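RECORD TYPE: protein structure
NAME: diguanylate cyclase
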Amino acid sequence: MNQYVQEILQNDRIPSPPSVAIRLLDLVSQPDVNVDELTKVLSADPRLSARLIAYCNSPMVGSKRKIASVPQAVMVLGLRTLRLLSLSFSLMDTQSKSDFDFDDFWRSSLATAVAAKCLGRRSGQSGDEEFLLGLVLNIGMVGMGVTSPQKLTELLADGKAMSEITIEMENSVFGTNRFEVGGKLLEKWNFPSAMAQTIGDFNPEQLNPESTRLALGQTLAALLLSTDVSEAQLAQAKTDALTLAQIDDVGFRELFDEMVAQWTGYESLFNFDSIAYGSLQELEERAKDSMMKISLGMDSEIQRMTIERKELEERVMIDVLTNLKNRAAYNIEVSAAFEHHRRNQMSIGVVVIDIDHFKSVNDTYGHAAGDDVLRAVGRCLATNCRKGDSVYRYGGEEFVAVIHNCEFNSIKAVANRFLTAIQDLQIETDVHSLKITASSGACWADKANVQSVETLFNHADKLLYKAKVNGRNQMFIDDVTTLSAAT
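PREDICTED:
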């Protein structure tokens, strides 16, 4: 076995599936499981039971009567489907305290699972096993990300999506790839051997009918979660669907709209961010609008931005301590970003974060410990922001995150995630192990409809002060569009 794979399997920081998932794995492999056995296992996890019942009552299932218990769910779904679905749902609670972004990982994996399920149904399958396989297709990334977070960060640099990372790229960085690692992890967790082998042997360059659904599922999942799709990306996805699965343009439209409907049901079960499109037609219209903007004048905009970027790179714009962009970068970038959002009627938000009682850390443990705290918080914020968002060290113990093209609930979720992640940090210094908290203020402007980015920042700063006065370790947020309208 590859030495690095062995290191991952022996790493105590790699999270194991929840105990209920372990018991469900036993049931999945048993052909003669009855309703009472399954009900007993599920009853040990009320949250999982509630999700399953909510699923049965959702439009995804379309039950004619209200489902109120697990036995009733069995009558609607069937015992085999419920076993696989229960296992899938329980796996998504697999988490650990590390810098790895589990929320983003499971959101992306759920999209792959939804796509694989819909593709399976088109092939005459139930879609249940395809859903589970899609969910764990990239599980090896958890092992590599928790074991070697810096290497994973390098691999995902420049905003790359997980689906853009090739086996060759992973082999060159890790000496193995996510599928080999994933297969071994599934073996360790006692998954059915056929499933573990399917993941372990998966190679996008050597496809069979089952792996074709998974590979195409990843492509469609990236399309489903994208916030800015180009016509070229959409055309490539349609070509892949036709080439790999003989799905023509009409079939692709039906498939994608089914994926959207399925995702809408799942996102409410797991509190994930909504997707940007309500149908393939809406996605196509946005892709055309994007292309039109480029053809009508983006050439000069790109040239201007290229010059500005070069000038920016020539200056010292990085905070040496945290490796985040500094206040000088904030002053240059954020005003331009705000104007871009305003011109294109895109919403924007600002989150101001301040470490609680930071002065006492310096006074009690020394400035070296204070530097360790700042570095840890900087890494934490960079890890927990969304792809494409920007995080700056504004000064001292204060940080600013600019959340681009977002809904109000999205910035609220990001701001809360920041504070939770900071509270969960265990900061190791030369002498002490420290726990800290932070406070924050957040502001959101619909379509950037506010006087200036300074207005947005100043109000967020006032909300930060309010959080401090009200006891710290909390976040206050406002829609400044509403406030501006009121005045």
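COMMENT: The chain is about 60% helix and 10% strand.
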